[in-house]
Amino acid sequence: MIPWLHLDIGLIPGGGELRLKRRGAEFSIRLGHNELMNSRLSGSEEAMATLSAERLKAHKAPHILIGGLGMGFTLKAALAAFDAQSRIVVAELVPAVIAWAHGPMAELFGDCLADPRITLKQADVRELIAEGPALYDAILLDVDNGPEGMTRKSNDRLYDERGIAAALAALRPGGMLAVWSMGPDAEFTKRLKRSGARVEEIGIKAHRGRSGTRHIIWLVTKK
């Protein structure tokens, strides 16, 4: 078996570090012993963008905020799914993840970062959500392994009732909040439903076209 090769460490603002590893053509980003993402498992990240775009077909020239650059799967799917007049802002907290996208993981990204529809910001997605009301048609969040602050504890505020309310306030009428998770979370589902928005909880295959692990995507439509 081909061994994992350690490529780099990325410091998380506020504490902690991510590790980038490679095994042949496969990449892995890890936090401690937890794998946050793997380049072989892209199906659910892509689905978060495509499912959102399907439900927002009536929104012309949509403005989209993606929380978490990761390995670029959600971003590339959003570029393919949303129209040519869309604007996509990507917020990535960890500077090293942005550097990896231009460096060791460049083959995963291809030329998508050169797309003129994209604005890539090294920033906390909560700061962009808080910039003003009714800014976005969609907010797609994939910054942790689920609705809790795994990457850093302060991310809990994205998923509590105030965080949900802030995200919905940042959406235009009929806009959508999408949240990715490794698995179900009944309490988070309850919080979403208490917000008064329309909530869908969907299980998606982690690996396109194959059986096995299913991830969860919540699609929350502002009324």
Tags for this entry?
8 helices; alpha/beta
Biggest β-sheet: count, sense, barrel?
7 strands, mixed
The assigned structural class equals alpha/beta
- Based on DSSP secondary structure assignment, what is the total number of beta strands? 11
| Widest β-sheet, arrangement of strands | 7-6-5-8-9-11-10
SSE string, helix = H, strand = E? EEEEHEHEHHEHEHHEHEE
Report how far the terminal alpha carbons are from each other: 52 Å
Q: What count of helical segments does DSSP give?
A: 8
Could you tell me the radius of gyration in angstroms? 16 Å
Helical content (DSSP H or I, runs of 4+): 25-40%
The fraction of residues in strands falls at 25-35%
Overall mean pLDDT = 93
The rough form would be described as globular
Low-confidence stretches: none
What does this protein look like?
By secondary structure, the chain is of the alpha/beta class. It contains 8 helices and 11 strands. The protein has helices at residues 43-55, 73-81, 95-102, 106-109, 125-129, 156-159, 161-169, 186-194, and strands at residues 5-11, 17-23, 26-31, 34-38, 63-67, 87-92, 118-122, 136-141, 171-181, 198-205, 214-221. Helix 1 (43-55) runs parallel beside helix 2 (73-81). It is globular.
